[in-house]
Amino acid sequence: MASVDEDNDARPSDDRDLVDGQLPMTARQEHFSLAFTRMVAYVAGCAVKTHDTDYEGVDITITSSADYKRFWGAEFDLQLKCTTQQQYLADTHMAWPMKTKPYRKLIRPRRYTPAYLGVLLLPEDADKWLSVDEDRLITESRMYWQAASAFDEDDGTQLTKTVHLPRKNLFDGSQLLAIMRTIGDDEGGLR
User: Looking at the DSSP assignment, which residues form a beta bridge with residue 119?
Assistant: First the structure.
């Protein structure tokens, strides 16, 4: 049986998150970040693998079918986050607080597949997330990324860890292909 708010609101407690009777904002953000990432990946000619759970701290895996110097079919795991909190954005980076458990999963040193973090920053006004007309599809959102290998080791003393995603790491097609080339060529760098 659904719970009822103490103020005699007859809506089930799960409906309190519903802004307009539709999906809660957190679910909208989650799905929008997946859709945004898919659009960028597909435009770059990459594919997306989904995971049934995110137990390993991975939301999706992005793959390439290109033949690089060392590997064919480079891929990387991507943990996605989404926010409307503009205060995380500084002049040179986005500062993102992560809980310790997902942070540890992301930075595991013996990962077979390289891991990355992507944080999508949306406007606070959901009406500005996406605009569509006959000529274009426009979003005022942008995603910043960083390789997990660039993050510090966890010393186990903190409940949260703040990571910095450089503003120059804007997730678009050319940067996605550069990530794939770094992984596929295996010539060092962040992977």
Answer: 81, 144
Q: How confident is the model at residue 144 (pLDDT cuts 50, 70, 90)?
A: very high
Question: pTM of the prediction?
Answer: 0.84
* Domain formed by 21-185, architecture: 3-Layer(aba) Sandwich (3.40)
d(CA 150, CA 116): 9
Predicted confidence (pLDDT) per residue in 50-65, tens digit: 988 777 788 999 999 8
As a three-state string, the secondary structure of the chain is CCCECCCCCCCEHHHHHCCCCCCCHHHHHHHHHHHHHHHHHHHCCCEEEECCCCCCCCCEEEECCCECCCCECCEEEEEEEEECCHHHECCCEEEEEEEHHHHHHHCCCCCCCCEEEEEEECCCCHHHCCEECCCCEECCCEEEEEEHHHCCCCCCCCCEEEEEEECCCECCHHHHHHHHHHHHHCCCCCC
The structural domains of the chain, with segments of one domain joined by +, span 21-185
Q: Which of 40-44, 57-61, 153-157 has the highest mean pLDDT?
A: 40-44
